[in-house]
Amino acid sequence: MKMEHTPGEIRTLQDSGEIGREAAQEFCHLAGEAVQARGVFTVALSGGSTPKKLYSLLADEDEPYRNMVPWKNIKVFWGDERCVPPDHPESNYRMAHDALLSKVPVEKTSVFRMEGEHPLPRKAAGTYEGLLRRVFRLGAEEVPRFDLIFLGLGSDGHTASLFPGSEVIFNRKDLVAATLVEKFGSYRLTMTPLVLCGAAKVIFLVSGRDKGDAVQSVLQGDYQPGRFPAQVVHPLQGKLLWLIDRSAARLLI
Ligand code: 6PG
Q1: Element spanning 113, H or E
Q2: Residue with the nearest Cα to atom 9 of ligand 1?
Q3: What is the pTM of this model?
Q4: For residue 154, how far is its CA from the centre of ligand 1 (angstroms)?
Q5: How far is the CA of 215 from the centre of ligand 1 (A)?
Q6: Percentage of residues in the chain with pLDDT exceeding 70?
């Protein structure tokens, strides 16, 4: 079956450093636009390693981006989190805190991390969903509209913590879910497709030769989100941008 949705805009860049720069420019532009229009910029950060360069560039006082960002008007969330404490080496919160949030004047009360340390993942997911509803002032059936969501792509086609074969890929009830990732034998917390598809803009950051097959399958293969969960991300009333380096894009036709 052919793709049900267009894959959005694809920009092929030289390497992970150029992905970081392009993403930093997008971040600054979108933050400025959102704050000028509504006084606030809501962003959900991605975990993994690819975004580290972006976060470091945004924090770097010798780079142009830091001073372009209205940090006091930004609300920071996460698209997913490993079920570990916030100071754990695998914590997505810790990675973003160390690379970015500890170095910029974002309000601590505007940083909303998922409680990966909670002994009951499902309860932590419910708590984060309640937080989204409160902060975005949502009605019962409403979905938050993030100004920007950053996502990565795994070599198996996963994104956030939507892994192949997981029922959370087709969850259209919750905003946040706890999911057991079989391959790791551990739980994760993740925003569901409802939230990912409700964003004004989603930017995928994809780098590395090992992502080549997944990139080709997700962007040019048949629509099989159960096998390639990243395919489920298509902003219904928003924009989708793929920032991919040459090695990850090498199989694209
Ligand atoms: C995570 C991310 C995950 C990540 C991809 C790509 O918690 O790890 O949410 O979806 O974005 O696995 O990771 P890399 O950027 O390290 O390749």
Answers
A1: none
A2: 160
A3: 0.97
A4: 6
A5: 14
A6: 97
